[in-house]
Amino acid sequence: MQLQPMVNILLSTFNGALYLTSQLDSLLAQTYRNIIITIRDDGSDDHTLALAEHYAERHPQIKVIPGPNLGIIKSYFHLLQVAEPEAHYFAFCDQDDVWSPDKISAAVEKLAGLDMSKPLLYCSVVEYVDSNLNHLGFSNEIKEFSFRTALAENVVTGCTAVINQAARELVLSSLPRFALIHDWWLYLVVSAFGEMAYDNRTYIKYRQHDANFIGGEPGFIRHFVRRLKRFLGPTNHEFTITKQAAEFLRCFGPHLKVRDREVLLSLLASKKNYLSRCQYALNPGVKRQSAFDQALFRCLIMLNRY
Known about the structure:
Structural class: alpha/beta
Helix content: 40-55%
Strand content: 15-25%
Low-confidence stretches: none
Shape: globular
Distance between the termini: 53 Å
């Protein structure tokens, strides 16, 4: 009997004891059996670490790494660095969701049909639920995956993301000094150099609660309100898509395809002055997934808030 390819689930925790039990139980209930779970605790001051270690004592496939607080982005990149070297796939996991039993099986099935020599990234639709797992809605289906759209918007929900060994090696070959979030960086890398695997089915109950580091908003009205608040709110110029794009150019610029490099340089050049921003905002190639988000993004460009 041929052994299943190994999947290493990477879970970063921080003060997540309230929901961690249900998440870990759902990981242990996966129908896909060749799984290793690596948990890195990011300096929790509640009993999250003790809870994770309790699970590790009872389940040999769980490994726990206590660590200082690095923040969510660096914590996940560290997990990627220390991941099981013999694993074929690496699945990113939040501390407060619940996975369907066939979540990993579905991802592996999608990825196994692609060219494993290329960097691959799987992602899927999620089901939004409240803190008690009551249904709220579903994330929108993605219309386009491309490097152009990846520069302007992240559409990869990190808790659905699974990458192959080639993607891991490429990401680790030049880790960023700055990224807006780890899953967005994965999307940039794979959209530029590999292939996306998208699943319009959902295998995750994506819990929405006050302690979410990053959350989604089901339904147009809630989504509209969240976007509008972000648009009207104060802007931190240290956390912009152009700063992330400049870092991507530093890390991978020499290896980009000519057209993708031109798209990236065009984005960065648009910051020069108001006229440049106006020209860029009117560029038909500037795209986000929805018409509303696209219009809002063009406004942000004109106001130099990108």
